[in-house]
Amino acid sequence: MNHNPHTTTPRGPLAHHFDDLDQQHEAAALGMWVFLVTEVLFFGGLFAGYGLYRFRYAEGFMEASRHLSVPLGAFNTVVLIGSSLTMAMGVHSAQLGRRKAITLYLCLTILLGMVFLGVKVVEYSDKFQEGHVPGQAFVHEGPLARQAELFFSFYFAMTGLHALHMVVGIGLLAFYARVAWRGRFSPEYYAPIENLGLYWHFVDIVWIFLFPLLYLIGLHE
Amino acid sequence: MTGHVMPVRAYLAVFGALLVLTFVTVWVARYDLDVFNIIVALSVAIAKGLLVLLYFMHLRYSGRLVWICMVAAFSWLGLLLGALLHEMATRDWTGMPTPWE
């Protein structure tokens, strides 16, 4: 369990182009962090667009925001924070070389991710039924209809892109849960699990900002 | 040897703090604090994001190269948001008509 049965090279889990395991570990993590930089700017563009129109059309955005379900949004926030905990525990188990624990925690993370997406499906279908999807069928009473439509454009673009990241994350989790079950990881080599954790936590951080900006801005009126 | 191993207690403490902050942000949003609503909401979100980044993502125990990545990312994001919103907030000061009004 603590060694790597699939590696046949005399250097164990160390790839030939690295000096030692620490260097290999740092290089793998650094690559993931650089990818996350691009993700920050990717989502950042959407947040900037949102900020611009939130500023300009504050009333319409607040009015439209009240159509979102705060209990469902808050529930999903808790679910996602919980999935970050199980993911962190998965990485923790990998650091200690606990094969079964890694698999268990990755599966729990998948489960919580599925719950999140399930709630998202309920929310999206409510939006379709209430006519809150931007386009021909958009329904909103009052003079701020166009502003509210813009809010829902941002809502679907931002939560949709976030949900897409979750779907990709769940796919990767399922793949690596299987790899972990086969005993591919050890305290010397668990870079894929750590990088998967970084990705999952990043997606959690995006939601931590989406929740107040989309669900809570109109609550006080 | 590879990576900093944190005690499980620390993860649970961070998880607890995140739950409390989630409750705080929902609770505060119900009161009308004028401009402070958005300030409180974003401050709580930044605090939660930092907790995840520093502890769940082990940034606190990561090397300087990783720190440079994150500082660069959020500097550029700050530049984008700062310039954009600053322009938006001060646009009316000159009394110049905007194209859509």
Keywords summarizing the entry:
heterodimer; A: 6 helices; about 0% strand; B: about 100 residues; 3 helices
Count of helical regions of chain A = 6
> Based on helices, strands and strand pairing, what is the structural class of chain A?
mainly alpha
Oligomer state of the chains in this structure: heterodimer
What are the low-pLDDT stretches of chain B, counting only 5+ consecutive residues below 50? none
Which band does the percent of strand residues of chain A land in?
under 5%
Biggest beta sheet attributes of chain B: none
Helix content of chain B: 55-70%
Total DSSP E strands of chain B: 0
Give the terminus-to-terminus CA distance of chain B: 63 Å
Mean pLDDT of chain B: 90
Q: Return the string of H and E elements of chain A.
A: HHHHHH
Q: What's the shape of chain B?
A: flat
Distance between the termini of chain A: 58 Å
The fraction of residues assigned to DSSP E strands of chain B is: under 5%
Order of secondary-structure elements of chain B: HHH
Radius of gyration of chain A: 21 Å
Give the structural class of chain B: mainly alpha
Average pLDDT rating of chain A: 92
- Give the CA-based shape of chain A: elongated
Helical proportion of chain A, percent range: over 70%
Plain-language structure description:
The complex is a heterodimer of chains A (221) and B (101). Chain A is mainly alpha-helical and 221 residues long. Chain A is 74% helix and 0% strand. Chain A is built from 6 helices and no strands. The radius of gyration of chain A is 21 Å and the shape is elongated. The model of chain A has no long low-confidence stretch (mean pLDDT 92). By secondary structure, chain B is mainly alpha-helical. In chain B, helix 1 runs antiparallel to helix 2. The model of chain B has no long low-confidence stretch (mean pLDDT 90). At the A-B interface, helix 1, helix 3 and helix 6 of A face helix 1, helix 2 and helix 3 of B.
